[in-house]
Amino acid sequence: MDLTFDRRHIWHPYTSTLTPLTCYPVTSAQGVSLYFEDGREVIDGMSSWWSAIHGYNHPELNAAAHAQIDKVSHVMFGGITHQPAIDLCKKLLALAPDNLQHVFLADSGSVAVEVSLKMALQYWHAKGESRSKFLTLRDGYHGDTFAAMSVTDPDNSMHSLYKGFLPEHIFANSPKTGFWQEWDESDLDDFTAKLTRHHTEIAAVILEPIVQGAGGMRIYHPKFLQGVRELCDQFGVLLILDEIATGFGRTGKMFACEHAAIEPDILCVGKALTGGYMTLSATMTTSKVADTVCGGEAGCFMHGPTFMGNPLACAVATASMALLERNEWQQQTKQIEQLFSELLPNLAQYDLVADVRWLGAIGVVETKRPVNMEAIQAHFVEQGVWIRPFGKLIYMMPPFISQPEHIEKLVDAVESALKREECFSG
Ligand SMILES: Cc1ncc(COP(=O)(O)O)c(C=O)c1O
């Protein structure tokens, strides 16, 4: 591969053209393994940013893509519909919380979040109320587009860079009580105070249920989410749950909101929707929200991306949902959780480690110093694993099909990195 061209001309996520970091050339992938051009195999601990839940090159997902591409790979969704979209939306509504009845298909997670915020704004507009604020949590992450950025943690994000362009929303303290800890009611104090004070201007609360992902890999107590739902009901504010990272089994439940036995008014999904094969997302809502939006001045929901409902993506997503319907993911994520619960506490003995935590197929090692990305990435590859940390967070979100030896290899690699001074900066 022409890596010199890549280095000179191709922008990778969050990288500099002045000092680009090493990129590893992948030529194929199979099951839980990625294969580099030089023949090296690495065990994937990331599921390609939490999306490839069934592993790579899955025969049933491949078959769905092959079958669909010979029929129609894309067609506009305005005025036209197709079987892959109908099949997918039937399955999505069957899996999602019962109150959700309408599906809006979009292109990426960030766009699903934009769509959810627009739905909430149009809902209040249709009701004749001017509500333009969102209440969200510190340490959250909802994507890189403008509205999504505006509800992402104001300190740990691009807020300062885009000051003046980003609308200013309301941030409550994120919950401190971990998933496995004893619930501390005071966790809800700041959220309650902010909702009480601003509820007449708040269109919706938006948050990541149970696991705050890219904003800090924080795994919090279900009672917090229950409290949020109760408060939203009490103050008549919509609740948007962003399950783009947590949806489809990652936390050991189909959707993370099930840990708290609550239902959102609007739900965003993406990432694992197609089993990581291609980009597709969905925003689902209740009949009440959908009908109110459409009963308003505009007479419809004002959004319609070119690649909305892409048939190829829908066909693969339907096959991915069919795999989930077999319920093997429950046993698989339980086994991964069990392994993380046995292996990760051993890493807490290292001085460098601030905390270890886990839930479902998520394992996190928080360090006291930030990683040196170039060095730790090279070390992981040398150890035969693919783990891509950020800041002080070394985390694993392996494909559900990972076997105990794969999880052990991932955790061993993390442990060996903790012993290497050059893998950390500061
Ligand atoms: C919770 C959450 N919301 C939204 C997004 C944005 O999704 P995408 O990168 O597909 O735009 C992400 C991506 O990491 C996410 O974790």
Please outline the helices and strands.
Elements: H1 3-9, E1 26-30, E2 33-36, E3 41-44, H2 47-50, H3 59-69, H4 83-95, E4 102-106, H5 109-126, E5 133-137, H6 146-150, E6 170-172, H7 189-198, E7 202-207, E8 211-212, E9 218-219, H8 222-235, E10 238-242, E11 266-269, E12 281-285, H9 287-294, H10 311-325, H11 328-343, E13 353-359, E14 362-367, H12 373-382, E15 385-386, E16 393-396, H13 404-418
Parallel strand pairs: 3-15, 5-6, 5-7, 7-10, 10-11
Antiparallel strand pairs: 1-2, 2-3, 4-12, 8-9, 11-12, 13-14, 14-16
Bound molecules: pyridoxal-5'-phosphate.
Description:
- This protein has 426 residues and is α/β, with parallel strands linked by helices.
- The protein has helices at 3-9, 47-50, 59-69, 83-95, 109-126, 146-150, 189-198, 222-235, 287-294, 311-325, 328-343, 373-382, 404-418; strands at 26-30, 33-36, 41-44, 102-106, 133-137, 170-172, 202-207, 211-212, 218-219, 238-242, 266-269, 281-285, 353-359, 362-367, 385-386, 393-396.
- The strands form four sheets. Strands 4-12-11-10-7-5-6 form a seven-stranded mixed β-sheet, with helices on both faces. Strands 1-2-3-15 form a four-stranded mixed β-sheet.
- α4 packs parallel to α10.
- It is globular.
- The structure holds pyridoxal-5'-phosphate.
Short précis:
The protein has 13 helices and 16 strands. It has helices spanning 3-9, 47-50, 59-69, 83-95, 109-126, 146-150, 189-198, 222-235, 287-294, 311-325, 328-343, 373-382, 404-418; strands spanning 26-30, 33-36, 41-44, 102-106, 133-137, 170-172, 202-207, 211-212, 218-219, 238-242, 266-269, 281-285, 353-359, 362-367, 385-386, 393-396. Helix 7 (189-198) packs parallel to helix 8.
